Amino acid sequence: MTPTIARAWAVARRDGMVLGFTDHDRTLMFEGIVFRPDSGLSARAVVQSVGLSVDNSEAVGALSDTAITERDVMAGRWDGADVRLWEVDWTDTGNRHLIFRGHLGEVVRSGAAFRAELRGLSEPLNKAQGRVYHPHCAAALGDGQCRFDLTRAGYWAEGVIEMVEDGQRLVLSGVDGHDPGWFEHGQLMMRLGAAEGLSGLVKADRPLPGARREVELWTALGIGPAAGDRVRLIAGCDRRSETCRMKFLNHLNFRGFPHLPPEDWLIAPKVNR
């Protein structure tokens, strides 16, 4: 490697924000991106191999108010961000070579810094391929297979947070007219407040007197909601055939196999007749 070679990173979040970083001591610019030397991002050596094995590395950096902030890390806004890494001649940025393309894994905070796994383009090859035959539906509510319209009246509701306990149990006002458990297995989406844009999975919900509702999340949001924040609740689906037919009236799009025999059928004693 010649003395004029530096490394430059471009990280593009899913919301469209793009930031550039470099280990050079001066700002570089190419492909319309400004690569700053003072943002505190660095990485270990990229491990690459011939064939279809997964490239891997790890990015580390310092949290700052101008680049990667603690609030964004805790909110998960950097998770899954697209990453490109070049070796570039800082005397002539046109002389560069792309050596890595992939995305960030989960970004976690470690003191005043962050740490994130870099996953190469071959990472999806680790995922199971093909269809799973199971009594429960394999589709996600509202996706291209399910085709259910989540904007239909009665299947969503908006309310305002009255109280938050432990970051997971919320009391909402303005939510009325839904059966107990209607939103279990569904989503809570933050519409206004510091946590706007974040969402969590609903573990349990029950109506309270006065058009109020208590909702419990499986895990707390990365940024804690506060009283006065506005939220939207999406009806939940437990992926059972009965739920699809009776609650959503969508059984034609059910993507499960409800008539499969149970697992213990394989080991049950056979009776000769």
Automatic annotation (TrEMBL):
InterPro entries: Phage_phiJL001_Gp84, Phage_phiJL001_Gp84_C. The lineage of its organism: Bacteria, Pseudomonadati, Pseudomonadota, Alphaproteobacteria, Rhodobacterales. This is DUF2163 domain-containing protein. Residues 181-264 form the Bacteriophage phiJL001 Gp84 C-terminal domain. NCBIfam families: phg_TIGR02218. It holds the Pfam family Phage_BR0599.
